[in-house]
């Protein structure tokens, strides 16, 4: 990547986030490549957002007061334990700014959410990337007694594998002088959240998002949950960079989404049902499928390469995700779980590709 002569030397090493999962002609495709929800936002979320649009001449509430009150009620924490961001990516940026520096670098797995590496490079932070084990699991021993700020996606992406809370606690206890970030973007699809531990461990930050299970990827809303001291640190960074970071329509839509609990639960159950159907069907076709607790599956087949299957499905107007790097996962494809009919169409097309 080249920059103009005016670009700061401080950021010459940045490598922007790869958005290869995006596609513009969505109406032509079954879209199973970006881990979005296949369901529209809650009708209540849409109604509240439309109402908020009537006042877009006014600045949004910089403290997200009503939203945070409702979110705190939903999570069983206090409002002072929450900070909202423009997507969880902004929250992660605040965390890098607040808790990573020349003395405290970052640590995250070699196969995980790739935005961590982008942020580390942008902030000129030294980072370590311990390898996943042979079964693609995070080895927490690599993070025990760590001198860095640790970032753990749980369930991990793109594998979908989950680390139980007793193991998370072991990590927290061994790093009492360093922050541990548990990124729970996919927590609602069958896993157990670490939010309940925030007041037990002063070094824990849990990050979640409305993009997946709440069907608000386009609304851009994420949040951090931690003890009030850490939230105050993050709020200081946020107010220094983006005091009005959450627009009024997104705040209103999120409140509506939280109020519509039945819609949320029904959609989650539908996605889990479709995930289990897809995993079982893929295994019947001799795929290796990791035991995902996310809204996606990570799978490979011994008779067809990941890139070949990706390309064949693309030609059939079905979008999945393929990662060319690192090499050990380039035979896999990541499949977002859509509606059950979409997953049945996927399986039928894969069957035809394998039999061709």
Q: Could you describe the 3D structure shown?
A:
By secondary structure, the chain is an alpha/beta fold. It has two domains: 21-39 and 262-355, Aspartate Aminotransferase, domain 1; 43-259, 3-Layer(aba) Sandwich (Aspartate Aminotransferase, domain 2), CATH 3.40.640.10. The chain is 36% helix and 13% strand. The chain has ten helices and 13 strands. The strands form three sheets. A seven-stranded mixed sheet has the order 2-8-7-6-5-3-4, with helices on both faces. The chain has a four-stranded antiparallel sheet with strand order 9-10-13-12. α5 (165-174) links the parallel β5 and β6 (180-183). The longest helix has 24 residues, at 261-284. The chain is globular, with a radius of gyration of 20 Å. 46% of the residues are buried.
